[in-house]
DNA sequence: AACAGGAATGAAAATCATTTTCATTTGTGG
DNA sequence: CCACAAATGAAAATGATTTTCATTCCTGTT
């Protein structure tokens, strides 16, 4: 068992929102940090074990990580131009919580996205 | 664009619950069906496009498919055993509509999923 | 300071699901 | 029967993730 490399965590923080292991790695490289991809993966896994970060899956199956507890938001995405608006999801949080309780689920997280055509398109 | 091979759909039905592309393939082989893995993938994709099957992700990132039962619903998925409960999302529908209006979006759809640990895990 | 043993690191190879390529087969209308 | 499009599948390519393993880095101990 290895412990997490602190620079990985700090990079994930700086990334804001979600980032995949590959993205964290590329980001660190671009910033001149000397680190191996393996270490990035190991560190992220360790952070997940310690429940310091959440892990989700993108549509394509790539794992994306995010700081636990970080105020998370949802997205409103335009199908046509790809423009994205960050929106708040108070209603969702409540819904997720209620549904989870109703079915005896614990440690729940959720994903929610809205997509459509923005006013310009 | 290829159309779905009907044997793939029928195998997915017979599998009950969720099955990954690899599982559908193995199942068909075991039953003596002559089919290629590529065709299984293509057929499943096509079924997803036609909204005949749902696709989700297991914890390990593998895509799992299942016949789309009813109309529009959301999922409560166990991260550990993959058990899935279909839940109703009235709150979400409303939230999506309000958020879309607020930002001038039209023709909106949405995705929402909750995941956690079920009572058995 | 030198040393030992364990943890951390990363390059390269291995894995595994999924996608792409491409040559072959099949089916259908003319 | 022929031509042409769609379907098929074997093999290669892709891409994320994991494993292997040799090396480096710590840290506590003589």
UniProtKB/TrEMBL annotation, chains A, B:
GO cellular component term of the entry, any: cytosol
Protein localization: Cytoplasm
InterPro entries named among the record's database cross-references: FUR (IPR002481), Fur_C (IPR043135), WH-like_DNA-bd_sf (IPR036388), WH_DNA-bd_sf (IPR036390)
PANTHER family (alphabetical): FERRIC UPTAKE REGULATION PROTEIN, ZINC UPTAKE REGULATION PROTEIN
Keywords: Cytoplasm, DNA-binding, Metal-binding, Repressor, Transcription, Transcription regulation, Zinc
Name of the molecule in the record: Unannotated protein
Annotated SUPFAM superfamilies: Winged helix' DNA-binding domain
Organism, as annotated: freshwater metagenome
Subunit structure: Homodimer.
């Amino acid at each position: 068992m290895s412990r997490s490399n602190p620079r990985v965590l700090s990079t994930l923080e700086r990334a804001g929102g979600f980032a995949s292991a590959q993205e964290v790695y590329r980001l660190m490289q671009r910033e001149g940090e000397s680190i191996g991809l393996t270490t990035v993966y190991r560190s992220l896994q360790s952070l997940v074990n310690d429940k310091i970060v959440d892990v989700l899956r993108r549509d394509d199956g790539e794992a994306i990580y995010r700081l636990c507890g970080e105020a998370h938001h949802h997205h409103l995405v335009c199908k046509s131009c790809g423009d994205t608006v960050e929106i708040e999801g108070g209603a969702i949080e409540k819904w997720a919580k209620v549904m989870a309780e109703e079915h005896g689920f614990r440690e729940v997280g959720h994903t929610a996205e809205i997509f459509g055509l923005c006013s310009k398109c």
